[in-house]
Amino acid sequence: MTREAFAGAGFQLDSPPLLSRSTVDRREELRDSLDGGTRLWKTGRVVLVDGKGRTPIDVDGGLAMQPATDFGDAPAPGAVLLGVEEDVSYWALRTDHDGEAEGWRDLRLGGAMLGDTDAGLFTTAVGLLSWHDHAQYCAVCGAATTRVRLGWARSCTGCEREEYPRTDPAVICLVHDGADHVLLARQPIWPPHRFSVLAGFVEVGESLEACVAREVAEEVGVDCGQIRYLGSQPWPFPRSLMLGFAAVAGRDQPLVPADGEIEEARWVHRDTIRAALEADGEPVDGVRLPPSVSIAYRMIKGWATWQS
After folding, report:
1. What is the pTM of this model?
2. Which CATH superfamily includes the segment(s) 4-17+167-305?
3. Which of 12, 30, 79, 283 has most Cβ atoms within 10 angstroms of its Cβ?
4. Residue 121 gets which letter from DSSP?
């Protein structure tokens, strides 16, 4: 690598991804409590989540949780234990209440407002409840499954097979030229001017590094190297774990956006990215950055503001 190519090579995330923050102890050993969680429930707090992954967030930017005993003296049907902190247990419960007109927010809109504890609770609640919604029948024999281990597993009523919450790994990679340009792309379904870094799901039998190289080549036709890990963030839409990487590629390679998947790809100068970071969501030279709640934003900001 030339001296010029070292510029930007050592950047890191500018800060921990907002949905990676958490303080609550998950207390795995409590999931098989002999009383079915009743003792924990009596001092618990409940995060209500509607069918669109929204919960009420109060004016101070905190989760508007309710005492667990508002829902009975024992864990309500469908309640899942999120964890314990300072002798307070935290639970999540699906509600059929529609918060459309009442200020309920999902993680995309509300995640950046929350503190470390509430961000971890809400992220876990959305992912865990979504898994329960889609795991009600056994993948082996087709019989109904029931919630066990305070919501951290489901047991088949037919073959007694236990199933655990599923997470789908996906890589997300910031490709730069080793100097002052970053490779960004946009999907056709995104809002106007929205650009981000490249991402894709890990396939069976594939390493994370191999997935990065494959996805970059498939999405924009570019060969990349010097792949290194940056950090990760849960992304429960519905059950992903985003694994962030950086890679270097030459700008002399032609960009070939994947038909139907990538509408446009371009190399963007660091000065444009810095201006877009200051623009508070408004486009700069036709580029609007991802929302701050995403790991993509933390990667882009880390690269743009890094000083060698």
Report:
1. 0.92
2. Nucleoside Triphosphate Pyrophosphohydrolase (3.90.79.10)
3. 79
4. H
